Amino acid sequence: MRTGRKAFKCFSVNRSLIFGIPALTLGGIGLVIAAYVLLILSSILYLIKEKPLDFKLREVNYVPVTIEIATYNEGLLVRRSILSIKELIYPKELLRVLILDDSDDRLSLGAVDAAAQELRNSGIAVEVIRRQSREGGKPGFLKQVENLVSTPYIFIVDADFRLEPDSLEKAISYASYNDFSFYQLRWSLEGNGLISDIQRFLLQFHLSEEQEKVFSLGLPVKINGSCTLIKTKDLISIGGWNPNTITEDLDLAIRFYLAGKNGAYLPYLGGTGLTTPSFGSLFKQLDRWVVGDAQALKAYGLKIIKSTNFRRSVLAFIYLFNYIFSFFSVLIILSAIISYYSLPNYGYYALLGLPILGFLPVLFKREYIPLYIVSFAYSIFMSMFLVKGLIKGEHEFKRTQKYKSRVSKWGLDRIMAACLCITTMILSILGLTIGRFIPATVFLIYAVSFAVVTAFW
Hints:
Blueprint: H1 2-47, E1 65-71, H2 78-84, E2 95-101, H3 106-121, E3 125-129, H4 137-144, E4 153-158, E5 162-163, H5 167-176, E6 182-190, H6 194-216, E7 228-231, H7 232-237, H8 248-258, E8 263-274, H9 279-307, H10 310-320, H11 327-339, H12 346-352, H13 354-357, H14 359-362, H15 369-391, H16 412-433, H17 437-455
Parallel strand pairs: 1-2, 1-4, 2-3, 6-8
Antiparallel strand pairs: 4-7, 5-8, 6-7
Helix pairs in contact: 1-11, 2-3, 8-9, 9-10, 9-15, 11-15, 11-17, 15-17, 16-17
């Protein structure tokens, strides 16, 4: 009797395995297909032909402008931004500078006051504003000073930016003969090392391949948080800054678009900012951007889909919420895990191996190899931040460090990157052991990407 029961139990297990394997294989293929649907959707914008644009500048109609700089414990770095205003090719009597200072350390407070006084000595009106509470972070501060602005335009500048002397003049020149709610200037980043190279590459791609194209197609231009000229009356007409967000630039751009007011992207260099010094600070910045993106997705996603005709609304949605497509990497990893428990299926493996094939063209340009490798870890972190943003209710505004004041410690995010590195390496070894070479190679690439991130934290 016992032998019969054992045989029946063994038969039951084997039968469940036999019927379970095709379902797993099908599920894995479904995940890979979903991954490539995301990848194709994210690429639609780049397949559309860009329309020619006329960026020719005409005679400048000089008007009063308020320049706003928000700063928080930037140390001597804030002088870089404040004193670059002194070099602007623009009538000094038409400029008014508002320095929104949330600093609480002596060095930063002293640096702001000294730079502000130097600017006053050059003939420019400057006001340093400090508040008791940092409620709402930067967007909350921008909201508080709205009633202090009486000029037709506001020029937003980050505290680490060094403005180009002709930046404001070019923006006003274009605005004098065009009617947009805001004008986003091109900007660049400076810094040394792999982390800086990654940030410069991503920024260059965003501005030259995305911003300029969407502007030519009449789609919503993003506000990038700095070197942005905003028409004051249009800002007030949509309710001003939103203090209940951590990405005030994206939030404002979306609300302009939904109100039927678009912005312009101008390919003139407005200024140069600083890259973040480590992967730790870069991912802290990404955390805010992606969580803020999720915040905006919940608030405005459905409204954008319903806003205009189907084609335009879909393209606008894809562009404004492009972090959604980072789930591509997560789905590839999940499908690789499933492949361990399914029968070998060469069609499935061919699909799974496509990310590896993407590495081959990169080999011809060696400077892109580190960027390609790191992009896998980059996508995984963005996916995690997006999930956090969609689930979590309230979000705190986080400032991003732009210089190294101390050696990074082994924080939770760094430990997570190291754990992911070890896990994917183990899965790669396991895959080679049981003969799953394609999944093993996929995991090896991910292991290397997490190893690079952890090493440069």
